[in-house]
């Protein structure tokens, strides 16, 4: 996945939606990225949003390479631990917003 991200960055593309649902394994068990519907190229951008467990709650503004790097780290976390990162934090924020508003 890191090689694929490096390659698309070299072409000016941000994936913007790295998560397990957007990864496949090929016959050699290498990770293959797909679903570039939410990707961004220059000023053109998709409308997709990352899964709540794969975006940094502190992200604000337009997509940046650092955001995809954060999502790549989150993807590696899932591969290693089998658990989604930040899911409980995001749910807590959503619950707080529902209660307060």
TrEMBL record:
Pfam families per the UniProt record, alphabetical: Pkinase
Q: What does this protein do?
A: Component of the EKC/KEOPS complex that is required for the formation of a threonylcarbamoyl group on adenosine at position 37 (t(6)A37) in tRNAs that read codons beginning with adenine. The complex is probably involved in the transfer of the threonylcarbamoyl moiety of threonylcarbamoyl-AMP (TC-AMP) to the N6 group of A37. BUD32 has ATPase activity in the context of the EKC/KEOPS complex and likely plays a supporting role to the catalytic subunit KAE1. The EKC/KEOPS complex also promotes both telomere uncapping and telomere elongation.
Tell me what this protein is called: EKC/KEOPS complex subunit BUD32
Assembly and partners are described as: Component of the EKC/KEOPS complex composed of at least BUD32, CGI121, GON7, KAE1 and PCC1; the whole complex dimerizes.
Q: Which residues form the Protein kinase domain?
A: 1-101
Could you say which EC number(s) this protein's record lists?
2.7.11.1
Enzyme class per UniProt: transferase
Instruction: Name the reaction it catalyses.
Output: L-seryl-[protein] + ATP = O-phospho-L-seryl-[protein] + ADP + H(+); L-threonyl-[protein] + ATP = O-phospho-L-threonyl-[protein] + ADP + H(+)
Please provide, alphabetically and separated by semicolons, the GO molecular function terms listed in this UniProt record. Answer: ATP binding; protein serine/threonine kinase activity
Give the InterPro entries listed for this entry.
Kinase-like_dom_sf, Prot_kinase_dom, Tyr_kinase_AS
């Amino acid at each position: 996945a890191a090689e694929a991200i490096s390659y698309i960055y070299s072409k000016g593309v941000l994936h913007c939606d790295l998560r397990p649902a957007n990864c496949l394994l090929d016959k050699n068990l290498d990770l293959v990225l797909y679903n570039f519907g939410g990707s961004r190229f220059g000023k053109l951008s998709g409308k997709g949003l990352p899964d709540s467990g794969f975006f940094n709650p502190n992200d604000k503004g337009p997509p940046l390479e650092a955001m995809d790097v954060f999502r790549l780290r989150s993807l590696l976390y899932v591969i290693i631990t089998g658990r989604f990162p930040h899911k409980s934090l995001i749910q807590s924020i959503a619950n707080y917003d529902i209660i307060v508003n």
